[in-house]
Amino acid sequence: MTEWAALANTCASADATNLVGFIYINEQQDMLKLAYVDFWGRRVETLVETDDLLPSWERGTMSQLRFFLPIALRSDAKRRYKLLNRFGNIADPQLFEGLFGD
User: Domain residues for 77?
Assistant: First the structure.
């Protein structure tokens, strides 16, 4: 029984890795602060230039059936973040759409 609990916990942690909880943008709108959760459940913050974001329309992944919106960077193709846009509160929808697409 303990093995199953450990396996379930590991799978849940892997799914939640790089899950973005908050996105902050500065007044000049040229830098984002992504606050996300790592594998161990700790909050991590990273600064990203808005020009470094790779929008979904450039990646060719416009599927509406996804549970989360993938956030990719031009400078590091291996680094991916996950954004649950269905349950979030967007303060500026026009700015959000300009950065991340629909």
Answer: 2-100
